[in-house]
Specification:
With about 230 residues, the chain is mainly beta. The protein has a single domain (about 25-225), classed as Jelly Rolls, CATH 2.60.120. It has one helix and 16 strands. It has one helix spanning about 170-180, and strands spanning about 5-10, 10-20, 20-25, 35-45, 60-65, 80, 90-95, 100-105, 105-110, 120, 130, 140-150, 155-160, 190-195, 205-210, 220-225. The strands form three sheets. The chain has a seven-stranded antiparallel beta sheet, with helices on one face. It has a six-stranded antiparallel beta sheet with strand order 3-15-5-6-9-10, with no helix packed on it. The chain has a three-stranded antiparallel beta sheet with strand order 7-8-11, with no helix packed on it. It is globular.
Length: about 230
């Protein structure tokens, strides 16, 4: 069950939503009136054992409506990024000289538009998710994706960064990232795929964030959705 908590960072107290084995869905105020959007998550782990975490599925994307969503296993229409490898869904633990983090071990595009849910590996490195409550520096990090509509295929970009393995992404810095109306803010590197998507199967008007591990909750400090065009 999702829960609200807070943690004190050098820059001040920040609240989080602890998400475990569940999906967060919110209807976008802009509906499906967008051509390209970026979804950015301000996130961290807290208090987990210093070891790899297996069977990790973190997804960020858009779906059609708030009823038949990704958690149902049969969404009406969905496209997003899976922050894990298709062949290995372990999150890899690194001690990092007293500032531990987990690496998502790859990334993939996840989509369903008239067919079956499909997870397709794309290149690039995994994202780093810091351990907020342990280490010499209390840290939050970020993962992101960009979804751009096309006539018959969409361009889906995974954005990854290593910048917050040993540094905290403050609330102010996160807001600055969200407000940058560019596909790839300078802190990120991107890889992409072009799956076949059509809104004939339902308008992509709803934000969907899903994490599958109840015993290892992930903390969401903020979510930013930026309409790029």
């Amino acid at each position: 069950m999702a829960a609200i908590g807070q943690l004190t960072f050098p820059s001040g107290v920040d609240q989080y939503l602890a998400l475990g084995q569940e999906e967060l869905v919110r209807k976008l105020t802009i509906g499906n009136s967008w051509n390209s959007i970026r979804i950015t998550l301000h996130l961290a782990f807290d208090g987990h054992t210093a070891a790899n975490i297996g069977y990790c599925h973190l997804y960020a994307g858009v779906c059609s409506g708030t009823v038949q969503t990704l958690a149902s296993g049969n969404p009406l229409n969905y496209v997003g990024i899976g922050f894990h490898n298709t062949s290995s869904d372990n999150y890899i633990y690194t001690a990092n000289s007293g500032n531990p983090y987990w690496e998502t071990n790859g990334n993939a595009v996840y989509y369903k538009s008239g067919g079956a849910l499909t997870l397709s590996q794309i290149g690039g490195n995994g994202s780093s998710i810091p351990e907020a409550g342990q280490g010499t520096i209390l840290r939050r990090g970020a993962v992101a994706c960009v979804i751009t509509k096309g006539a018959s295929t969409y361009t889906v970009q995974h954005l990854y960064t290593t910048s917050y393995r040993s540094a905290d992404l403050t609330t102010a810095a996160f807001i600055d990232l969200v407000e940058q109306v560019v596909n790839t803010p300078s802190v990120f590197t991107s890889t992409q795929a072009t799956p076949a998507i059509s809104e004939a199967y339902g308008p992509l008007d709803t934000l969907s964030i899903m994490w599958n591990r109840g015993v290892y909750p992930i903390h969401l400090y903020a979510i930013g959705v930026t309409r790029l065009s």
